[in-house]
Amino acid sequence: MKNRQKHSAAFKAQVALEAMREQATVVEIGRRYKINPNLVHKWKKEAVTRLATVFEPGRADAEGAANADRETELLRKIGQLSLENDFLARGLARVR
Fold first, then answer.
1. Per CATH, is 1-55 categorized as 2.40.128?
2. Do the beta carbons of residue 29 and residue 19 sit within 8 Å?
3. Which of 22, 39, 81, 90 shows its CA 20 to 30 Å from the CA of 96?
């Protein structure tokens, strides 16, 4: 029984891009990369359907804003936990 091979997103993109260029047949591309031609078709189709989302306005801004909000929240939590840790350490020092 042959184990399933997991391909990286970069590899899939490379194969899909080559298939979209149509300089070689899908079968030739499959042979070159040692993958089933059906995968080449699948990755090409997925790349073509998702290509439009790359150019959507505000996509990068929305992701950046979400990351900034998450970072701010994590920094606030780190500050709070540091303060609590210092407070408890001082209290423990008094008890000893």
1. no
2. yes
3. 81
